[in-house]
């Protein structure tokens, strides 16, 4: 399994990876610091799951999602949004763009456990 | 500008939003956060309001601080700031990284070391989570979608910068100030929300609607 973490804070890239590794020790983890860099990594690596921050420089998370959906209508990659934004309208906009789930920051051990359950559920259903 | 009832209603809303933000901070630091009720003032640039501000501002505003700033909105717009004393900022980072397990360890740390990129990165993310939580809740209350700038972090001597509160383009400043402590780790923190007059009026109008609804029911 391959994860791509798109997050502008390099410290939190490491924290997110560490929390996910507890549940998926065999997985490969890739990181990118903004939406545009993340898209380049996606094209090259085709990860199974993308953890996507929203507020980022160069290309934000919503712009990334629009580009991603536009260019990859048949992709199998699932996107998980991980954001500090608590606005209802933002959550609705992001969910309309087709994401697996929307998680409010901070990403904690409990939230990583919940996400791991969702991912295992997805894989069992395949 | 605000009558007693409006002020009480706005304070209660902010109290809830700050409570939610404190819960997130507790998750980040793995510490219980104890909050005080926020003080809330809408200040104009008058001498009288300046005196009120001097009276109510936390004492650490007379020292070196670290400030995270999030700018928001085009219609309802302004900026929100999370302010910590400079000498406490590094142990907040240590708590986040799980590098400080005891108060003794934290309290013996020298708080005058230079802030590293990792310190700035961690403080930026604390500001991002806390300020998004409060400002986003205000957006939800007003039913508007707010766009945010990237959060900025700066360390400076606060008295040199606070003049901007009274000399900026905004004629009114909504100041919300509260202190909090973390179990055995005592610190002060403050949240400032700076709004222009139109945005302050928009907020008051919404508060009036809520109060009217309450009266009718």
Notes on the protein architecture:
The complex is a heterodimer of chains A (126) and B (217). Chain A is built from five helices and five strands; from the N terminus they run βαβαβαβαβα. Chain A starts with a strand and ends with a helix. Chain A has helices at residues 10-21, 35-45, 61-71, 88-96, 109-125; strands spanning 2-6, 28-32, 49-52, 78-83, 101-104. Chain A is globular and about 30 Å long. The model of chain A has no long low-confidence stretch (mean pLDDT 94). The longest helix of chain A is centred in the C-terminal third of the chain and has 17 residues, at 109-125. Chain B has a single domain (4-210), classed as Chemotaxis protein chec (3-Layer(aba) Sandwich). Chain B has a four-stranded antiparallel β-sheet. Chain B has a three-stranded antiparallel β-sheet with strand order 1-7-8. A two-stranded antiparallel sheet of chain B has the order 2-6.
